[in-house]
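thread: overnight batch results

M.L. [08:02]
morning all. the overnight job finished for the chain we discussed friday. pasting input first so we're all looking at the same thing
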Amino acid sequence: MTTAADGILRQITEIVARELAVPAESLAADTDLRAVEGADSVRLLRVVAKVEQTWDVELDDSDVFTVSSVAELAAVVREALQVKAA
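M.L. [08:03]
and the structure it wrote out:
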């Protein structure tokens, strides 16, 4: 994983922790977002909105609904950034 990818993963972990009110240390790259205590559809949508705002991207709905982990969300963001840069 590159330094940029590490940074995206770290920032997403921080966003998820803040929006779901859990310690960032409790989240791993493979953490199932829906299994995090306190996660519900509204909070997860806030995570997506904050991610989109942070990187100024619009994530595809089909991608958002299939993402299950922190790492998968980071991968979707990296793809969106590549499309934006093209």
